[in-house]
Amino acid sequence: MRIAALDDEPSQLELIRHTMEGIGHECHGYTEGKTLLRDLRQQSFDLLILDWTLPEVSGPTIVKWIRQDLASRLPILFVTNRREEADMVEGLSAGADDFMVKPIRVGELEARVKALLRRAYPSQHEAEVLFGPYHFHLNSRTLHVNGAPIELKHREYELALFLFQNIGRLLSREHLREAVWGMGPDAPSRSLDTHMSRLRTKLDLRPSNGFLLSAVYGLGYRLEAIDVDSLNSMPSSQPGSLSAIA
């Protein structure tokens, strides 16, 4: 998973980063709220770990901006020195999902993050997942479409599964590259585009099959579920109908 952490204390931020990487996640650290807000406009993350008291903006203000301006359901965990019940109520009312009091206890942080991720992304913790005609067998790392096996290379399978597990989310190019290729330099931009083009063809990702894979210029890609019944009820001659891009 791709996690963002904001804390203006470098030692606390390093502890969070080290803990997250220790349980297999990519963690991007921020010491300034304005830098995080800039990246949230351009990138995607799976979870945010957030301090409350920051130099230029408060944690609750950041949470409200994420919920209202970005309209994002990004899971958010407060890790803060605030410990009064009123603080917890304020943080959760602002839109946070959980609240943890410092000093950071590594075991508790791991447990809370795992619980939030299980609730937010349940399909990523199952042995088999089914999306319409697309049936992923996670243990054997195979994919069947309408009962027929689809031959996919390793990266293609990883990318396809990640897209379906995040249906409806705009995933930044950086997020996709990290999820499939890792943090290394082995995933140039064109490689990602090539893989996306192959998946469109191999999986027949088009509205008449219930899913549409689209590129969002300058940001990334989104896999969307399409209501096939509504699509079929639309007059074929209607201007701008989805049948024009099927």
TrEMBL record:
<dbReference type="InterPro" id="IPR039420">
    <property type="entry name" value="WalR-like"/>
</dbReference>
<feature type="domain" description="OmpR/PhoB-type">
    <location>
        <begin position="126"/>
        <end position="225"/>
    </location>
</feature>
<protein>
    <submittedName>
        <fullName>Response regulator transcription factor</fullName>
    </submittedName>
</protein>
<keyword id="KW-0902">Two-component regulatory system</keyword>
<dbReference type="InterPro" id="IPR011006">
    <property type="entry name" value="CheY-like_superfamily"/>
</dbReference>
<feature type="DNA-binding region" description="OmpR/PhoB-type">
    <location>
        <begin position="126"/>
        <end position="225"/>
    </location>
</feature>
<feature type="domain" description="Response regulatory">
    <location>
        <begin position="2"/>
        <end position="117"/>
    </location>
</feature>
<dbReference type="InterPro" id="IPR036388">
    <property type="entry name" value="WH-like_DNA-bd_sf"/>
</dbReference>
<keyword id="KW-0238">DNA-binding</keyword>
<keyword id="KW-0597">Phosphoprotein</keyword>
<dbReference type="InterPro" id="IPR001867">
    <property type="entry name" value="OmpR/PhoB-type_DNA-bd"/>
</dbReference>
<dbReference type="Pfam" id="PF00072">
    <property type="entry name" value="Response_reg"/>
</dbReference>
<feature type="modified residue" description="4-aspartylphosphate">
    <location>
        <position position="51"/>
    </location>
</feature>
<dbReference type="InterPro" id="IPR001789">
    <property type="entry name" value="Sig_transdc_resp-reg_receiver"/>
</dbReference>
<dbReference type="Pfam" id="PF00486">
    <property type="entry name" value="Trans_reg_C"/>
</dbReference>
